[in-house]
Write a structure and sequence with these properties.
Elements lengths: L13 H4 L16 H23 L10 H13 L3 E6 L2 E6 L3 H7 L7 H20 L1
Helix pairs in contact: 2-3, 2-5, 4-5
């Protein structure tokens, strides 16, 4: 399942998505307990609802996609190392790595959706700035 390009079946178990994780989240693929993946997805969905959607509202792509798609792409970017999940006293936030945009531009598989991916990275940076000012 490619979270960026493939049509997303919202009824699929999230565990299937973990099969594509090859980086920092790859250990979730080996989990015997589905509730760990569900907790990761729920924390990510909460962060989307609380922090990212307002920063993505002007994006033609992200304003139209489901939260499930956004969660899948965020976790893909975390897995590949472009973003980091950071636990704070207020839940999970995402931080973009300093070279996240360069990394995205170098990925041939992301070329078709490079604009939306860069918008998402910018939103993560903006939400991190507003979080640190709060």
């Amino acid at each position: 399942m490619d979270p960026i390009e493939e049509p997303m079946d919202e009824t699929r178990p999230w565990a299937e998505m973990t099969q594509t994780w090859k980086g920092t989240l790859s250990h979730y693929h080996r989990h015997c307990h589905g509730e760990h993946v569900e907790a990761l997805v729920q924390e990510t969905a909460d962060a989307v609802a609380q922090r990212l959607r307002k920063h993505l509202s002007a994006s033609p792509y992200w304003s139209e996609v489901s939260d499930a798609r956004l969660v899948a792409v965020l976790l893909y970017l975390v897995d590949r190392g472009a973003l980091r999940r950071v636990r704070t006293g207020n839940g999970i936030i995402f931080e973009a790595q300093p070279d996240a945009e360069d990394w995205a531009r170098a990925q041939t598989g992301l070329k078709a959706k490079l604009g939306p991916i860069l918008d998402l990275i910018a939103a993560v940076r903006a939400s991190g700035s507003s979080h640190s000012q709060a």
